[in-house]
């Protein structure tokens, strides 16, 4: 099967699944700029269904999600088998700009595109569903490099349809989740897009890692948390990294 054929079948299946089984409601699409943008949202629930939903939720534009490289394909003696779409992300190896340039660079082949990141990195346990974990600074680096707005987004219901009951830590990357049941429960889902904002105060500045962590967790994370508060109480987890407010 050709990859494009697979993508079309996948899109039709999941759009039907989200529409009729989970009654997915998408709010605030008018907040997405017509031009290029970075979308930042909280992670929630198992099976990474929030990744699939955000990718397919816009009626006319595709939202390209940064996903760990191991979820893209499997190499075997029989060839390469594709698992998911999106933009590959290598943890610990820095951002591979050549994969993002087509969507956000003004001369890119698919500009103006929409690139999505989950700055938390993992979903967390069901009993901690109210906690928003620390945001990694990749979203800051992308927004500043391309000078594009950030659209904060929250999801609701994904923790309930596929609750994560236990996690096993890995040396590299997010922990592996233990899910129950092995299928999704028929709760209603929501995705809400907030008003876009820019980090224009920091354009053309050379920031340290401490300053990037500060922007991610003192500017971007609170905007996502504010949206999420519409649906549940929210607690911001402690950031165990050194941070420093940039001087403007």
Your description of this structure?
The chain has 248 residues and is of the alpha/beta class. It has a single domain (3-236), classed as Glycerol-3-phosphate (1)-acyltransferase, CATH 3.40.1130. It is built from six helices and 13 strands. The protein has helices spanning 3-20, 49-56, 97-104, 138-146, 158-161, 209-228, and strands at residues 25-27, 37-41, 63-68, 73-76, 79-82, 87-89, 114-117, 131-132, 150-156, 164-168, 176-179, 190-193, 235-236. The protein has a seven-stranded mixed sheet with strand order 1-12-9-2-7-3-6, sandwiched between helices. Strands 4-5 form a two-stranded antiparallel ribbon. A two-stranded parallel sheet has the order 8-13. A hairpin with a 7-residue loop joins β10 (164-168) and β11 (176-179). α4 packs across α6. The radius of gyration is 18 Å and the shape is globular. The model has no long low-confidence stretch (mean pLDDT 89).
In CATH's first tier, which class applies? Alpha Beta
Instruction: Label the structural class.
Output: alpha/beta
Write down the Rg.
18 Å
How are helices and strands ordered from N to C? HEEHEEEEHEEHEHEEEHE
What's the number of helices?
A: 6
Please give a handful of descriptors for the protein shown.
248 residues; 21% strand; Glycerol-3-phosphate (1)-acyltransferase; 13 strands; seven-stranded mixed beta sheet; two-stranded antiparallel ribbon; alpha/beta
């Amino acid at each position: 099967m050709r990859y494009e054929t697979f993508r079309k079948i996948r899109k039709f299946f999941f759009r039907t699944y989200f529409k009729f089984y989970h009654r997915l409601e998408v709010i605030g699409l008018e907040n997405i700029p017509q031009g290029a943008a970075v979308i930042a949202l909280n992670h929630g629930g198992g099976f990474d269904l929030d990744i699939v939903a955000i990718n397919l939720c816009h009626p006319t534009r595709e939202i390209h999600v940064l996903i760990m490289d191991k979820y893209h394909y499997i190499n075997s003696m029989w060839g390469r088998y594709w698992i998911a779409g999106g933009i590959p992300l290598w943890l610990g190896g820095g951002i591979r700009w050549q994969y993002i340039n087509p969507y956000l660079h003004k001369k890119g082949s698919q500009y103006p595109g929409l690139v999505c990141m989950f700055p938390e990195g993992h979903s967390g346990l069901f009993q901690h569903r109210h906690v928003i974990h620390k945001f990694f600074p990749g979203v800051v680096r992308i927004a500043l490099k391309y000078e594009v707005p950030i659209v904060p987004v929250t999801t609701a219901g994904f923790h309930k349809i596929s609750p994560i009951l236990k996690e096993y830590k890995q040396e590299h990357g997010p922990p592996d989740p233990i899910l129950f049941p092995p299928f999704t429960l028929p709760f209603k889902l929501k995705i809400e897009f907030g008003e876009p904002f820019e980090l224009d105060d920091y354009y053309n500045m050379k920031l340290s890692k401490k300053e990037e962590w500060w922007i991610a967790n003192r500017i971007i994370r609170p905007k996502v948390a504010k949206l999420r508060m519409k649906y549940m109480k929210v607690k911001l987890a402690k950031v165990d990294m050194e941070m420093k407010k940039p001087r403007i």
